[in-house]
Fold:
Amino acid sequence: MPAVLGLNCYKHDAAAALIVDGRLVAAAEEERFRRIKHYADYPAMAIDFALKQAGMEARDIDHVAYYMLPGLVFRENLQYSRNYILRPGGAAFLAGQLAGARKMAGIGSKLSEHLGPSLRAKLHFVEHHVAHALAAWYCSGFDSCAVLTMDGVGERDTSLLGSIEGGKLRRLAGSRYPNSPGVFYSTLTRHLGFAPDSDEYKVMGLSSYGQPEFIDLFRRMLCTDGRGGIRLDTRMLDVHRGVHHARFSDSVLELIGSPRGKGEPVVSRHENVACSAQRALDELGLALARLLREKTGRDRLVISGGVGLNCVMNGLIEREAGFEEVFPLPAPHDAGTSVGAAVSVHLSEFPGVPLESPSDMYLGPGYSEQAVESALAQSKLTFARPERLVEVAARLVEKGMVVGLFQGRMEFGPRALGNRSILADPRRADMKDLVNSVVKQREAFRPFAPAVLEERAGEYFEGCVRSRFMISTYRVPPPKAEEIPAVTHVDGTARVQTVPRESNPFYYDVIEAFGRLTGVPVVLNTSYNVKGEPIVESPSDAIRCFYGTGIDALVIPPFLVAKRPAAEILRAR
Structure:
């Protein structure tokens, strides 16, 4: 059976993916095992997991695919260094960038060191945006589609527009650094007092609270050239000191105000800046998508690259770009390129072996009942084994309890989709603040997502038929918004996950049981973690998070652990 191991590392969000005989058998981010968010170094534990999941050893790997062209990264850094080498800190920045490129080039030696002399696989380097594009095409299940990728920067490109048919990519347009929508948004994130390349989703959530006071300014800063290229005005946003040190010009700061300092309150000016910049990104993404629809004539579009995590932009494109179907990759950030790199090499090396698209993103580790019970016993917590665990879980949520749900294989990508999730009642207006404060320990303006039975989605979310990966927003009709206020954002939208029974029976059954109790087939779903930590990976991670937060009960099939309020409710039954 042909086996291709895909890798990305040494930038951010390191991950490994394994395609065996055309099927994606495993994919996981290294951060989940290391418990270090956005872990960037070599993904040894993710690789070990992938091989174990496939029942393979190093000698069984035929090819290894890496998500970047290190030589081009090295050359681009040298070429661009003239812009910042003489600036304060410029030499140190360049040295760090070149060291990173050398690490990339040495990935083969690192693999041999890790996996030993039995590894005989041929190493391939795959262009970054090609890996983004092919990952989205492969996971979509489309044979033919248009493709849009946008991020900070790969080797030198910041976007790719094209079409894919049968795995063959045709480029139509693209952009190169410094014309970067990702750098634009990460600079905005830093300006608003959050961590760039990490907290962009906070800015997206904050943007809904503001007014587009500065829209004309940001439209001039970031726009399209009308031919599929992106233009970033570097007189307004100085990127010449390096990707992670970009800043707005003094003339821009005079208009939007000085950067928000750590610990300073978020005020209306910050909300308006976020709103205006988000609108500019929305308009850019929509313009590029419409151009793709016109130039390719395709009915379907796939979206990838780090900017593809912006579900507000994705929702706008789905509604207004003119495509019949839009598929944003569930892992559009760099972790997803591990899949795309493997796909690229599989296509070139095994053209006679058809690829089988994954039906879901449950691609990480899973744990046996014995392993779960052992972890619970070691924790010295009291646990039970209810006969009707689905109904118990639904009843606890209906009674206002916050419930952790740990089951099955871990999700690949940044969204919890019912296997590493926290569930709560969406009908309670105070539940958003409650979960934000006592469980997630995060900012009050951050929204939560609804999970809805797929066949009922259209009743609650306009135009939503299928949205299984929580990566697009939909409008909530006002009467339904009154029913589910905890998952309706301030702008009247929601980041929806539709749940079909065939993809996750236990999760579906909990939502269905909650619907029978309440008449509302929707639950609040957020990732099982606290601020600053990755989503839980193991039963021990789940138990620690449960014990250290305001989660009332932990459903870890077939077992249940309950703290005092939830335990009292169960006894009262």
